[in-house]
Amino acid sequence: MQVTVSVNGEEHTRDVEPRMLLVHFLRDELGMTGTHWGCDTSNCGTCVVLMDGEPVKSCTLLAATAAGHEVTTVEGLEVDGQLDPVQQGFTEMHGLQCGFCTPGMMLTARALLNRNPNPSDEEIREAISGQICRCTGYATIVRSIRWAAEHPAPAQQSSEEVTA
Amino acid sequence: MQVPAPFEYERATSVDHALALLQQLGPEARLLAGGYSLLPMMKLRLAAPEYLIDIDALAAELGYIREAVDRVHIGAMTRHRELLESELLASRLPIFTDAERVIADPVVRNRGTIGGALCQADPAEDLSAVCAAVGAQMLIRGPGGERTVTMQEFHRGPYETAVGPEEILIEVVVPLRSDSGSAYEKVERRVGDWAVAAAGAAVTLSGGTIERVGIALAAVGAGVTSSEAEQALTGKTPSDESLSEAARIAAENCSPATDQRGSAEYKRHAAGVLTERALRRAVARALGEEA
User: Fold this and answer.
1) The domain at A2-76 falls in which architecture?
2) Residues 6+ apart with CB under 8 A from B265
3) Cβ pair A65:B2 closer than 8 A
4) Tens digits of residue pLDDT in A41-65
5) Which residues of A are less than 8 Å from B54 in CB distance?
6) Do B40 and A42 lie within an 8 Å CB cutoff?
7) Is the confidence metric ipTM above 0.95 for this complex?
8) Which residues, 6 or more positions from B227, have their beta carbon under 8 angstroms from its beta carbon?
9) If one looks up domain A85-153 in CATH, what number appears?
10) What whole-number distance in Å separates Cα of residue A143 and Cα of residue A138?
11) What are the helix (H) ranges across chain B?
12) Does the CB of A68 have a partner CB in chain B at under 8 Å?
């Protein structure tokens, strides 16, 4: 079947089987391997992408279901060569070790900060509780997200001021 | 790599459209709601429907929590996250809030739906016990119109419900009662896991005695509700002794199985402790002593 998915603002159409999962559509059809494929059982969360701005596990979502929704992957975080504050935070605060969980962690962090620009450490921990870091680097991941909260991108700052 | 067996895919755009597709495609068609119950089963090839009718687009039509005078209507496509964040449920039916806090994780809760969970009817699933304890009714629509069933009628056994091949669960109707409290208690191996054992309790007080009580256990092979324990408590004064005795009866009348989550003896013990805790909190909430 023809499936058209909007990924990072760009529409991609592919002829795929209905049973194709979004994670494989992104990696194998579009070559966007930033989305990692881990446990395959919706436990580990490394395959998390945003769908309409909210984190979902792309190993447990059909590509066909994603049609008509806006998908954001880790490749979509950086805009015009400017890292998302979450990406910068992971750099500044050593938020990654092996890096396998990192794309999912950063996308969940972005969704959290969009909804709650100044989360407590407890709220950050709750938000990433569906994702596993097998390096057990959670403390630095929390610090990275906190850094991002404290250093919003200029555009985000101004839009908040306008809203306020 | 876990991939579902091949199937034909249809997208429903309304409840009527989904009903028409179910009629047209026959009993080998399954509805796909949030996907977090059915897709894992399909990836393990425990389920292999010939046709999948994706009802993702029905989230707007069937995603709601509405308060009426004496009841709350919860649309079948209401997502776990919406149940968790509902102030109405937190204040009037906190058993839902208790359970949602310990169902899977925030990302899964973004997609999973109450209707999907109830219709999958996994024996360790939490919302079936929640709905049974509060005496919820299930509104089902089919080609012949709508019908309403109790949880006793709805829940036919593991992975089996009263929803026929041409029918859709539309909403869950939960009665609102005054002087009432409810609570849910669960033990899991790790955060977000399925229950080792869990217990839900809903209590309505009248003049210092228990007028109505619902007790329902999850994951321990109990009935839809623990009717022997409910009978033992109805009409009694809620005391340490009466609540503890009801919990003992509930534990005695379930039949847990030994598996990787624990031995039958451990689960039975946990079921008793959790039932007692749920009853205590439900009573405390009914008396306004606990939020």
Assistant:
1) Roll (3.10)
2) none
3) no
4) 999 999 999 999 999 999 999 999 9
5) 62, 64-65
6) yes
7) no
8) none
9) 1.10.150.120
10) 9
11) 15-25, 38-43, 59-62, 80-85, 87-92, 94-101, 106-111, 114-120, 127-133, 151-154, 227-233, 240-252, 264-286
12) yes
